[in-house]
Amino acid sequence: MNGKKIFLFLLAFGMAxxxxxxxxxxxxRVAVLPLTIYSQINLAYLQKNMLEALVEGLTKQQxxxxxxxxxxxxQNKKIPEDAAELRAIGQELEAEYLLxxxxxxIGQRLHLKGNLLEVASEKPPVVFSLSEDGLENLLRLxxxxxxxxxxxxxxxxxxxxxxxxxxxxxxxSAILKEIKSKAGDPYSPEFLDQDLRxxxxxxYFSDVRVETTPTPQGKAVTFVVxxxxxxxxxxxxxxxxxxxEDLKEQxxxxxxxxxxxxxxxxxxxxxxxxxQSKGYYNVRITQTMTLEDQGKAAVLVFQITEGKKVxxxxxxxKGNKGVTEKQLKEVMSxxxxxxxxFVTSSGVYKKELLEQDLEKIAAYYYNNGYLKAKVGEPxxxxxxxxxxxxxxxxxxxxxxMGKVDLQGDLIRPKEKMMALLSVTKEKFYNRGxxxxxxxxxxxxYSLEGFAFADxxxxxxxxxxxxxxxxxxxxxxxxxxYFERIDIVGNIKTRDKVIRRELKxxxxxxxxxxALRKSNENLQRLDFFEEVNLSTSPGSEEDRMRLKVEVKxxxxxxxxxxxxxxxxxxxxxxxxxxxxxxxxxxxRLSLDAQLGAITTRYNLGFFEPWLFDTQIxxxxxxxxxxxxxxxxxxxxxxxxxxxxxxxxxxxVRAYLTYAYEDANVTDVAEDAAQIIxxxxxxxxxxxxxxxxxxxxxxxxxxxxxxxxxxxxxxYAGGPLxxxxxxxxxxxxxxxxxxxxxxxxxxxxxxxxxxxxxxxGDLPLYEKFYLGGINSIRGFKYSSISPRDPNTGQQIGGxxxxxxNFEFIFPLMAKAGLKGVLFYDMGNVFTKEEGLNLGNLRxxxxxxIRWYSPIGPLRLxxxxxxxxxxxxxxxxxxxxxxxxx
Length: 883
Fold this sequence. Notes:
The protein is an alpha+beta fold. The chain is built from 17 helices and 37 strands.
């Protein structure tokens, strides 16, 4: 009897254990193993993310899944291919199904091959095959895989077809892109409900519903949509202080697009923010929508109640002891309402600007010894028509600079590197100087090829004596070489045109300064709207790739125009030009000017790299007719010049041969004898040597740099011709950037010419000043020595000229600038010699615009030392280069 009881007990225990194990298998029904990844690029970091996405997708379908803690260890193991081994894994994990497979990436294409193995069955695994484009669709691919697996396990019907109905303006493809379910997927009301919500969230539909129809192949699914009306017209009412076109720039709703309430709400908020940026904090904006055209079109009306402008009454600080309120306000861009607020908009509160000011205040403290200063969140109190701002500050103690040292991998003698530091000159701790030193040291190391040099400032503070010791710890790393230089975006411009402007080369050492210079060179070409140089790691730690990305702009132009100048009166100008001929970087131009006094034609061709060398070639042919006061001059000629860099890139030498055949006619009877003697034909054959240094950032609209030149021109003698002379010239112009995008320009010129024995020196080769390109306010060429008998202008052998300009932006986006100027200079005869105490002076103002047909200048000059018979002032207009 006892034996029977023991037997029955063991039998019951065994059955209970079997039931428990069966229950355990049911609880962890599907075991998901990590997918094997095949890709040229290492994507192992995605393995866990994919596993989690699959588990989440199955769990959403109420399918039990083996805990990740049991399957994740397989991440670093090879999944067996033998079915028996796989079933053993499933049994070990107490799973009813084992899910495994692989992800293959070829180019941008992702292909997933999955296998679902029923552990207790001898059937072969069910195979799934899915694809998507791009890693951005990886989670979408996992979701589709989980749905198909869930459908197979739960034996759901398939979606036989999936279509969209009711859309007229919204493309079907755009709607299907939001729907994750696909034809062939298991039918799931839950997933279709998610898809319905996604379509509705697009904002283009007033109603979305799903219709299903049973078919022998499964469910036919149709998404039925009802489109919102399209925006026929947008109206703005109630705005008095702000222009309608400015407000429309804030509206993200566009006419003839589908009405979207989310976009309308966004437009309201953007207009409110725009009003508030102008000081209108009490503005209220409401929107109404009325339907037209049988409900198909919507008229959107924004009704605005502007309210009064709200200004900042006071800005106060709480907690500042060592720094005065005045010092802090000088740092800020936000300010209180002032006397000129109606003009300058001072006193207007802008949240973004105040946030920047908080950073400026903190930086001011950090740069003046306050190592632990804290600037808190400001309180902005709105009362009536005023705002009151209070900024809390915790200053902390002020620290002086102690010892400064350099440690680590020093590539120069320590004393020479210490001399480069800025922080050693500071009495108090200065974070700005430390940052400047880091950049200085990083640049120094980059010049030697250490692209990843690490400069770490280690600060040791002594709160007892309030001093800070600073050590720059430097790790130079390995020298880095450019492995490859890729150029993208150039459709027309040839690669070699870009590469020859680069100061770095493949297999060359990294050099940050050379990269900056390369960027400047490409910008100066003026072939591109955008230039971007970016680096990325190469195949090895000491290798780097450089990507030169450009966006080309139009370089060819055809222009016709008419204008008026003080000299020419009415004139017509025309130009056909190509600055990047056939993408080779060459310049070809044909210019014509027809005026009351001057008729000029010029054909020019410029090759910056002759035969792919650094020699430049400049060729010109011209025909020029000009009427002077007492004679006319007709000339034809040409020039051929060559240039070559002799000192770096900025200093070039030019050698130019020029020939001009001129005929002086129609000499007035009352002309001075020296003019009478000039009648007839004159030929000039000259050779000119020029040394030129050009560091300007831009050829036109220059903001910094200088242009300096020294030249000697010799005519006649062995070169032939009838005119024999030597001309010397020096010029120097400097651009100095100032505040708010303004520039100061200082320019000086000196010239001297002397006749050589054996030939003539005609008057038109001598010096004259006056006019828009020399001393403004004076008539063209009116500053000149005069014939003692007739008082007529006869030119001088020596000249000197000074120009000073303050250039400021008027419409920065349009390239329109204003200028205030002061000019002085004079022309002297050989007998008089140079006399700096006898200079003519003028001042004035003007505007400049770099237009499609060239630089346009309109300037007014006022003569400060007018003599009898001279105009007090003159307006002048010209098309052509600046100084």
